[in-house]
Write a structure and sequence with these properties.
The structure holds two protein chains of two kinds. Helix content of chain A is 37%, strand content 13%. By secondary structure, chain A is of the alpha/beta class. Chain A is globular and about 65 Å long. By secondary structure, chain B is of the alpha/beta class. Classes of the chains: A alpha/beta, B alpha/beta.
Amino acid sequence: MSLSDPRVASLFRFIRHEYAAGEARLVYAFDDGPELVETIRFLDAPALAPEREVAFAHALQLLHLIAGVSYYKAGVPPGIRIEGAGIDQQTARFMDALYLHGLGEFAYHNKLDLRERIRFPANRGASAAPATACGLPRRTLVPIGGGKDSLVSVELLKRAGDPATAVWIGNSALIQSCAERTDLPMLNIGRAISPLLFEYNRAGAWNGHIPVTAINSAILVLAALLYGFDAVAFSNERSASSATLEYDGIEVNHQWSKGWAFEMAFRAELHRRVATDLDYYSLLRPLSELAVAARFARSSHYDDVFSSCNRNFRILGPKPSDRWCGQCPKCHFVFLALAPFVPKPRLLKIFGRNLLDDPAQTAGFDALIEYRDHKPFECVGEGRESRAAMALLAKRAEWREDAIVERFNREILGQLDAQELDLPPLLTMTGGHHVPLPLVALLEAG
Amino acid sequence: MNTSIARLAPDAPWVVIKFGGTSVSTRTRWDTIAEIAASHCANGKRVLIVVSALSGVTDLLKRLGETRDDFAQARQLRDTLVARHHALFDEMGLPKRNAIDAWMARLDQLLEDPRHSEARLSWQAELLALGELCSSTLGARYLNESRLDTLWLDARDFLRAEALPNQSEWGQWLSASVRFGHAPEIAAGLASRGDVFITQGFIARKDASDTAVLGRGGSDTSAAYFGALLNAEAVEIWTDVPGMFSANPRQVPDARLLVRLDYAEAQEIATTGAKVLHPRCIHPVRDARVPICIRDTNRPELPGTEIGWEARDPVPSVKAISSRKGLTLVSMETISMWQQVGFLADVFEAFKRHGLSVDLIGSAETNVTVSLDPSDNLLDSDVLARLCADLETCCRVKVIAPCAAITLVGRGMRSMLHRLSAVLAEFGALDVHLISQSSNNLNLTFVVDEGVVDALIPRLHALLIQADVMRVTDSRVFGTSWSELAQVQTTRRQPAWWRGQRERLLELAQEASPRYVYSLDQVRAQAQALKAIPAVDRWHYALKANPHAQILKAVHAEGFAFECVSWNEIAAVRNAIPDLQAERILFTPNFAPREEYRAALHAGVLVTLDALHPITEWGEDFAGRDIFLRVDLGVGRGHHDKVRTGGAQSKFGVALDEIAAFREHARRHGARIIGLHAHLGSGILDAAHWRSVHVQLASLAEQFNRIGILDIGGGLGVPSRPRDEPLDLVALASALAEVKQAYPQFQLWMEPGRFLVAEAGVLLARVTQTKRKGEVRYVGIDAGMNSLIRPALYEAWHEIVNLSRLGQVADELVQVVGPICETGDVLGGNRRLPVCREGDVILIAEAGAYGAVMASRYNLREPASEFCL
């Protein structure tokens, strides 16, 4: 099929959403173009409890709105239309913020100004019935992504004796092998993006980063209502809230939907519109990336299965290079963040190579420490975390002769404010969070 | 249960048989153990069975040992352990559970023990020992139920741990050593009690009543200790593999079984990589002169590997090439080392202080580099950091890791050095951090980056055989290859087509010589074999291999598209097949001039760019066009340096770190990148290679918007030597299908050349003269390197036969040479042919690819003509 370029469309339409027999279907279109259908599959889904039907319907609508971002961004048309009953003012403003900030990096790369375009229409007649409690059982869904963060959460929840289930969305051999290693009950949710999106891409669609954590959050809310969980515990940390750069008066943050602002807004929307007894929080929120790394380092249980690498390894192999590309900012950052806390031979075993002794990776590490470059558009820690980690390695005999550490010592260290390089302050818990009280003490103890 | 009666004579010889984790984890496996023990008994031997813990149990116990105050996890691990043992108990159908439950009760006691929260070493050792105590207890019950009277022994009553000088606290408890030696009174005492005994590997008594464990490879070592203690006739290590091999069979399917080794060689091989036997277990049996045998539980009929005293009249040969990963090098640099008295002593003192044992050592005037073996201690503690901090006081220290040591093992290594040139050349392209050769003349070790090893070892193994340094024809030492044993040879080679066409070929050679003859049937057969691979959406014939018009027509008829590398190739294929659609031609030139790209675009041919230059300098030519991008994945593969087309040393492709720039330029000019292409080399016989290229391209392509096609190149290997195995197309098909399933959005294209035509072509030549110089005999033929340059250019090996005397005994060793005035004009060196006479027709096989097309008029000699059957 050959489709017209979605960039010339004038309207993005939320057509309908439906759920039957474990499958949610989210339908969109540009103008009068073909329907774009995204499907979410809940395996072995139980029948929906009657007391949760209203909440589920609201959650499904929320997911429909949020997941639309993948398609909306292909054309970024000037108009947005929501068919059917529509949404109230507050939801509309929540969606505006999500699309504007969640597509911030996308807009920066494509040199688009979205401020004038993104305006979700509110309908005064839309139902404003407040959410109620839906009798959810005490169980936690903990989404895992194959990286270190969610595995730190898993271990925390296990230690707290929390009845947690490891959940992941989509097919991924890597995540599955991590999930198996957790020894927790597992839940996998299927997600199929409309194949027409690929056609639209070939026809010239805009492309770029989308706020995927927001989509996953909405999917998991649906899952919690369906299977019966009263909490969804993400593993976003404090560093996720800091902007990558500022552009044209807007802070651009690659990880916006992993940040504190989104967590608060989504949680508020959830409690206002969906269910009052469904908790949504990030367990690692008060921690820096380095503090998470320090916690991860305490056990080698996941060393040979986890990967935070950005390359999508759909097919697993036994070698470290089958999980870590060694070239991307995530590989660089995780390597650097673990280095202060993990014995060097163990770290090199995890990665299968020494990234800090490879001069070809110099530019990558420079970006992390924000030396002559801005922080990369990736889920990586703050620049000062990277600088503090590097400065610590520069003092350590087993690291300081490695090419990149040695250059840091020689060329960069002198230009930095020594006080800012202190590691311990970066390891303390600070900032707002929604972590349930019983878990806070454990989190603090590491 | 300890009430057996001895039926054998008191002086009946002992055999110690040891079984690992997987061998003791199911009832069926215990039946096998019973059979093996009973058959030894029937042969008049007294048997001691030494067992490991059930597979995975030691790891669980180890994790349990680290739980400290994480009671939830401890509880969970405890439950898993209990369930494992109860499951086997149930499977065995044993009547009473008390014996195993007693150990489980002991487990619970240990968990309550105050030493738990501190993870005290004494406590950890006792905990770890439970695995073997349980498995041996279950085993003893089962064997007795199976009517094999078996006495259970506590290994700790016989093996006493002894602290070694400088041994760390950790080592004394968790990697203990045992004093050993023949103890006739113990042997006699046992002999009076029964014929079959079972005991635990891995564990020993420490002090009066404590328990220590022997660490990695502990069960093998226990078996060896018992072998020495009982002065056994043999110690048999029963495993899941047929024995020790000339290389790790997982890396090198062609690895040969080593039928016999001496202790020193075996220890060297085990130390340098082979996992089948732990090197620690050689020492006890060597001192006691007890032979140790590795046997395959699944195939007891195989001879296995016997390790004993040094063989008489050994022929120098490399016995094995092994690799050890996970090495850490510590490089210490100082100024004017020679003046500094005691520098080395200081350095080694630091290693000693931290309980680290140094393995390899290399030194220069101002540098000492040593290697540390991988150990739990290095991985889990900050010992390396502390060591480096100490060393810093006397030198500059650098840690180089992860490294791998590649070791050639064989008695008389130095007498073989001169024949290792091809092997050494392989190391030339790598960073070699350290080379070591010890005075016992047994080994030669190269330390390189860990990442290169898996690809390197198979090449080195093949080169060692080629250079006849690894004498695989010596059947006293070398057995069958792993792949033969594993019977993976699903695609046996057919006899070559030309064997059935001898008369016709002889006629053709009479008409004109030298002459290339091609079998179009063979071309079609190859094409059809490839088309049976469903994952590939479109096949291209890389016509540079052989652009003969009739071959082009034949592959076109089979549905192949074409891959061209020059404008003239495009013209040739359009000339041969006038109705060919332009889009069935893929143009993938390298450093071609701008006009060729323009002409190709004008003709509507698909163009692949393999450098930044065309898109940066001539970008407007590609505006609005669909293009392919050839990337260099960074590693080259192939049978020879000159056919590798990946890696920085190769001129092909856009480097990974330049892809972003390429995209940016393409976007600026409005060129659409619709396909990614990679071609990493030629003559590759390993299906896993394309799987890996396919995966890498797919994961790269995911980052692009419009890419719908992945072209993973060609390079499908064709075997040349008689015992070489052909490319396994079934394995290739399933490897590609697996990747395609993961990335269904991409079409898959391939572009083989040689695979289609190599075997289809033969070069016929006639004998011109023969010559004898000293011991060397030459057979001169009228075809030289001007007709077939592959032997000279790539050191390619082509089968050569005397077609006139096909079937006669080929017993004369000759050099087959051409008429060109070049020393390198050798078509085949050291070949066995029947005695050749002037005018005989010589056939050079597999000459259909890169033969006629690479021919020249050098010496103003006309090259061979061409003929299609």
